[in-house]
Amino acid sequence: MKRTTLAVAALALAAAAGPAVAQNEQFVPANFYWVGPYAPGGSGFGGGMIDYFAMLNERDRGINGVKLTWEKCETEYRNDRGVECYERSKNKGPTGASVIHPLSTGITYSLIEKATADKIPVISLGYGRTDAADGRVFPYIFPLITTYWSQNTAKIKFIGMKEGGMDRLQGKKIVNIYHDSAYGKETIPVLDVQAKKYGFQVTHIAVPHPGNEQQAQWLQVRQIKPDWVILRGWGVMNPTALKAAAKIGFPRDKIVGVWWSGAEEDVIPAGDAAKGYIAAGFNLPGTSFPVMQDILKNVYKKGKGEMEDSSRIGSIYHTRGVVAGIITAEAIRTAQAQFGKGKPMTGEQVRWGIEHLNIDDKRLKELGAVGLMQPLKVSCMDHEGGGAVKFLQWDGKKWNVITDWIASDQSIVRPMVEASAAQYAKEKGIAPRDCSKEK
Questions:
Q1: Segments forming the whole domain that contains residue 275
Q2: pLDDT tens digits, one per residue of 209-235
Q3: What's the pTM?
């Protein structure tokens, strides 16, 4: 009788505690956005990352036998919802959240102190706070592959190339049309520094969220008569900008967009108004890469793919999410090599894995991702790890690569990064790490 009572009590306790957590799983939150004006970016990126994880589970049984798991949480691209999703997901799985991908500069800013205190790394892939590239001050924040400041130095290099040399920028007029948010404002300081260095005039024009009303801004562009326009848009703001440019007769091949303005969903809705438009990129589209073929074979042919619209498989946003999946998985793999294969890693251990990433050409080939992304080497000092940018041009049907990788100008970027990080450390009372003591 007593044994039966104890057994019933044990079952009741187990039920109250919720479903049992598998101990050989690695949990990665999928805190993205599938609704609202920024849904194309969130659903494409989130879909690509999940597809890569699903492929590893199907093809390799995870990472050294550790299955990857995830749970979706809708952030709506809102800071408060992003923080709510973070709090909801941070303790899930056998070790808690492995890493956070906020997919929002504003949410990234909101999580810097929280995630650092919780020892959960944040990967802000091609977005977020640029000075977090200084790992001495931001040990848990990783603006990987290339930052906004790096991108802008490459962008001005590209414009200089088109003008016939950097000296030809003297006296030119550039308008920076930007999304009026933390994301949009992030590049104003570096553009001002470059304007002073190269002698061009820059005018910053804000576009309020969500960006579907831009008539006044483009009338201002018409008055200024710039030589080039930089489009720092997001979501519906991008096709709206291209149509507005066409309306005032501004040539689209003189508009250079950020990589969050350079996906199929940013140009197709603009129709003919998008032809000739140029955008930066740190990943390329397509399904011909071996890693994409593995996703098609192991995930989509089994009916397990995330992308409901098959035409979006291999799009810019989708392959960007695949790149995020590759980097996340390689960080976990690197952590396992240090702390023990075949078991899930804590956020602190994954942080070590990210900081010791070295995805060289040889590893890119093994991953089936040669050409999809650039090599990536991260260190305590450098949480960016790459910095190069390619430029693509829309011909009305597809993106065409028009440059090789263009290196960023670290002679401009790094001093700005270190000065800004030092100021942040001073304000927050942070003692920067000594990277010479990091292994």
A1: 149-284+391-408
A2: 999 999 999 999 999 999 999 999 999
A3: 0.93
